[in-house]
Recover the amino acids of this structure.
């Protein structure tokens, strides 16, 4: 256990700056813990004696028990004193959500805090961050109301982001789509814990299968590169760099006060470190969903199965553009499919079951693809609109995917009816896309990682 | 009025092959008309005398009234006789949804039909197509059940697609997102009416502002190019070509029996004709949404207004990559914003209101951008999660967009709460995107079309 573990799995938590005012950050964070945290909670505020049915303490020193994690939500000028008190009382981990430091020109205040951190060896995330969301332990320092910002369910994707807004908005977006996560962290100004520390921690975290990293600028580039190089063969790392244009760098500078650096340098460093590059946030989680649920493919031969010819054509285009290949199934498996498929179906190359497709036909085609030695990845376009196609195709896809024999990627475009089925697929570990492009990019990413892993 | 109008706005419709069996195509289509069509409906089937509370006729000749549109849903071998009867009885427009012709090797059957079409000058859409959906007139020949495939509301985007599955799935997808449409057509084997006829018809259709075209292969390339060239200065045409790789072309051949041709030739022809190219289906409708609701920009200077710094950085990156520019607002408007914005906000270049943004601040920034002569396009990143930001920002965005002073494009990422607000924006003519990339691509498309229009 490294000294980062306490952030994610504390037994005791103090919320410093706990408040009775429901609009205050100190109230929202406390109520998150009251709602979802299984350990002990200690609100700290010298002005009140009770909040949310919990006894309130005047300071950390008046709590008799050992505090594993302190969440600090007090005005910036008070933060150093609070940090000192935490250090004195043996608190091992602090998340400082308060803003008003380097990003507002208060560099001296931050330096003062850095000294305290060194003195007590306290580990600190922040300041100027949103902190942590961990659905397993219930640690949740996100100070956006839950009706506006949904929380994700337990999964295996972890996400590291300097930016708090980016981290929390992404979570909200993922939650509605039933994408699941392990640990989400916004680390802000990073006076202590940085990207590299988190990457190394997640490398050893059993609940994390894929590490996602959103960066604008990095202060300790070599340290991060070293960590990524070490970790990327063990677990996939997907990274996105923002501030890749000159104007974007300017925007990043005024956003976080950090230099965005030359994007070519970043991209080269990421590639050398075995990191998978995403070009935008949506793609980052498209990659992560597939990497966290699907086995490594043995090669790049993709079998497309579709009930809409046009979607088969577009899928083929995108896969080929991505350097993948269309699988050529063996004759015995092709025969097996021909027996069941509609007379006007195509079974050479792309299997087009047409609008007469049934879930039984899909099952046979998927199983033939899983059995066939010429197929590495199964790419299922399941348009649920045709009258004969019943929703038990969802169960079939879940069962076949659970076998983990070969990666299965699903494309399913549509409205409300389709949306319900897609969410059910996602919840059960079947990555599902609306359009062929995203799915083809994810297939390529899966193949790319198989090369990184075994290189 | 050209002779295509009858397809979209008939007063009398015959459904040939009307059936009492709810699983039959002839039943689903008839019930669509019974549900939504305001004109007179004549079911045709010699074996039954009543269906869905409508009198059923043994044949077209036994209907006393003039039939404007006949929808033919009978087995392929019977279609030529039915077509002949339609011609004899003066039916001016027929949609043949039945399949089993050229795509199944029955070329002779199609040739026979072509002769009948010439003889009577009947206009025909199909065969082997899904036909038409027009929310204004209630013409709806889509034979997928409505619970599986939602219908779109009245709007101004028209869509032309050879492929029926592509057309109908797209509609379902659009309906859930509250994207609105005018006329959607799948024209199948095109023995008579083709893409060019439809492009020219939509050019004169008052309810169509943008024409979208999905093609795999085109039979009469020169005719289409001529039509597009004529129309594109009057109304934007967005086209997507599928089957751009060799393998994709093969898939297209087995899908529709048409040669996909060389993609470079298509792309060159599209560009020469003033057509905007979309690289995938989602992007096609991203473009169409913006083109159908927003005015032409005077230039390419984009003012970004955001409450999330990271999203501001990513937006800048994508706009610059697309060849757009970040606007430099005049000092007087900047002052106006500085007065209201939070102290730690950035107002040079990208306006970052931070997580302390309120809807009042957004209003001021949008109005300053609309007033400022250095701004051509207003790019609003509205992340709705911050506690202080109220949902009346939706009304502000709708009002400011309705002024049509300059194009406004919105980015709003999130979950269920955000989704409700996004749908409200879409319904009221404000194009809204989940991530910066799609919005930046749409901004570029808007600028590109302004150049085509005024070149």
């Amino acid at each position: 256990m490294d000294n980062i573990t306490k952030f994610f799995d504390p037994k005791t938590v103090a919320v410093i700056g706990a408040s009775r005012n429901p609009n205050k950050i100190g109230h929202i964070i406390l109520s998150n813990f009251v709602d979802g945290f299984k350990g002990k909670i200690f609100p700290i505020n010298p002005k009140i004696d009770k909040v949310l049915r919990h006894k309130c303490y005047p300071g950390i020193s008046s709590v008799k028990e050992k505090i594993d994690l302190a969440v600090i939500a007090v005005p910036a000028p008070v933060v150093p004193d609070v940090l000192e008190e935490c250090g004195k009382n043996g608190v091992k981990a602090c998340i400082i959500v308060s803003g008003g430091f380097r990003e507002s020109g208060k560099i001296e205040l931050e330096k003062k805090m850095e000294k305290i951190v060194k003195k007590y060896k306290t580990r600190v995330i922040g300041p100027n961050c949103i902190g942590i969301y961990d659905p397993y332990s219930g640690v949740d320092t996100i100070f956006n109301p839950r009706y506006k910002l949904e929380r994700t369910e337990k999964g295996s994707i972890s996400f590291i982001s300097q930016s708090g807004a980016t981290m929390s908005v992404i979570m909200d977006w993922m939650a509605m789509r039933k994408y699941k996560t392990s640990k989400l962290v916004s680390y802000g100004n990073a006076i202590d814990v940085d990207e590299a520390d988190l990457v190394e921690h997640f490398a050893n975290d059993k609940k994390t299968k894929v590490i996602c990293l959103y960066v604008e600028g990095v202060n300790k580039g070599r340290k991060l590169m070293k960590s990524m190089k070490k970790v990327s063969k063990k677990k996939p790392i997907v990274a996105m760099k923002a501030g890749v244009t000159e104007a974007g760098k300017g925007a990043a500078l005024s956003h976080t006060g950090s230099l965005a650096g030359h994007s070519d340098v970043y991209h080269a460093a990421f590639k050398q470190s075995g990191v998978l590059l995403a070009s935008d946030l949506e793609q980052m989680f498209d990659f992560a969903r597939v990497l966290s649920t699907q086995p490594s493919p043995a090669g790049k031969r993709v079998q497309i199965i579709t009930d809409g010819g046009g979607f088969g054509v577009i899928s083929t285009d995108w896969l080929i553009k991505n350097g993948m290949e269309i699988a050529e199934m063996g004759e015995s498996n092709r025969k097996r499919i021909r027996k069941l498929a509609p007379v006007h179906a195509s079974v050479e190359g792309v299997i087009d079951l047409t609008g007469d497709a049934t879930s039984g036909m899909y099952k046979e085609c998927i199983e033939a693809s899983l059995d066939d030695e010429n197929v590495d990845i199964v790419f299922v376009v399941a348009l649920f609109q045709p009258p004969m196609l019943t929703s038990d195709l969802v169960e079939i896809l879940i069962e076949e995917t659970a076998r983990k024999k070969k990666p299965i990627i699903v494309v399913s475009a549509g409205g409300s009816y389709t949306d319900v089925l897609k969410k059910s697929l996602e919840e059960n570990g079947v990555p599902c896309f609306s359009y062929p492009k995203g799915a083809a990019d994810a297939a390529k990413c899966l193949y790319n990682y198989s090369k990184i892993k075994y290189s």
Remarks:
- Chain A touches chain B through 86 residues (CB under 8 Å).
- Residues 411 and 435 of chain A are 6 Å apart (CA to CA).
